[in-house]
Amino acid sequence: MFRFKNFKIYNEAKDFAKFCEEVISKNLKNDRKELLFQTRGAYLSVILNIAEGSGCDSDKEFRRFLEISLRSVYEVVAAFDLAFEMGLVDGKIQETIESKAEMLCKQISSFRKKLNS
């Protein structure tokens, strides 16, 4: 019934979200609430759009949700880039986020292309 649970991209997105949450919990405190909430919203959007889109009636509609999910990954990267510039996370964390995000983007894009065929 919930086919998204079987998608590799869904499970990878969950792992990405867990990592982001660990970083946020350790580095972004309540004095940065706006950035904290926006970042959480972005990584949750990655997962939730994969799940929601999997219930679409057509592959075309599902691809649209995957595009939103992909854009949300970009938003996460931008949020952590800003956190780095503000001195809230170190360069190693930022590099790790970008590396994980790049891999997830490739997987989501590949999955979208498979829906096109």
Automatic annotation (TrEMBL):
A Pfam family of this chain: 23S_rRNA_IVP
Domain of life the protein comes from: Bacteria
InterPro entries the UniProt entry points to: 23S_rRNA-intervening_sequence, 23S_rRNA_IVS_sf
Identification of the protein by name: Four helix bundle protein
Naturally occurring in which organism (per UniProt): candidate division WOR-1 bacterium RIFOXYB2_FULL_36_35
